[in-house]
Amino acid sequence: MDLGKSVAKQNEIVLRLAKHVITTTTTAGKTSNLVFSPALIHVILSFMAARYHGDTEDQILSLLQASSTDELNAVSSKIVTAVLADSTASGSPMISAANGVWVDKSLTVEPSFKDLLENSYKAAFNQVDFRTKAGEVTEEVNSWVEKQTNGLITDLL
Questions:
Q1: What is the per-residue DSSP string for 112-125?
Q2: Distance CA 41, CA 47 (A)
Q3: 40 contacts 48 by C-beta, under 8 angstroms
Q4: How many distinct helices (H) and strands (E) make up the chain?
Q5: Residue 27 bridge partners (DSSP)
Q6: 104, 130 contact by CB (below 8 A)
Q7: Which sequence ranges form a coiled-coil region, renumbered to this chain (predicted)?
Q8: CA-based, 20 to 30 A from 44: which of 64, 69, 73, 106?
Q9: Upper half-sphere CA count for residue 40 (Cβ side, 13 Å)
Q10: Pairing of strands 100-104, 124-128
Q11: 133 phi, psi to nearest 5 deg
């Protein structure tokens, strides 16, 4: 697999998606504020393809024109470690991204899936008690997001 070609192909696809989103949110000469991250859309879709096999995986692979989830995981790993890295030391803009997955303790998670999240997607992984401690989990998530984004985002849930 040529990672450079895969990244370029994914860039083309998510930029087409961005143009579509911008076109559909700008109607009758009216514009609205829009925050859209093609890189994060790609990461989210790749994550979904890695988790949901069968028709969902096939549809995402087709949409992103990828040969496999391994290709998507490699591209997403590159995005997370290079594109979404904080480049303030080099004078580049600061990008704050918080990748995390919280799963209820009652659910079993395959170790390989947890490993994929933490290593390829650089996502935090936590098993929590959504059923009886939802308020505490909400506070935990929001506190974590605030810390990860240097206070730029304070509430997620």
A1: HHHHHHHHTS--EE
A2: 10
A3: no
A4: 6, 2
A5: 30
A6: yes
A7: none
A8: 106
A9: 12
A10: parallel
A11: -130, 40
Q: Looking only at Cα atoms, what is the longest distance across the chain?
A: 50
Nearest to 71 by CA among 122, 17, 8: 8
Q: Residue 128: phi, psi to the nearest 5?
A: -135, 170
Is the pTM of the predicted complex or chain greater than 0.70?
A: no
- The total of other beta-carbon atoms located within 10 Å of residue 142's CB is 15
Among 125, 131, 120, 80, residue whose Cα is nearest residue 102: 125
* Euclidean distance between CA atoms 127 and 103, whole angstroms: 5
> Which residue, chain included where needed, has tokens 């997001």?
145
pLDDT score of 147: 84
pLDDT along the chain (157 residues), means of 10: 73 78 65 64 83 90 88 80 61 65 90 87 89 91 81 52
What per-residue confidence (pLDDT) applies to 94? Answer: 58
Instruction: Kindly report the number of other CB atoms within 10 A of residue 10's CB atom.
Output: 24
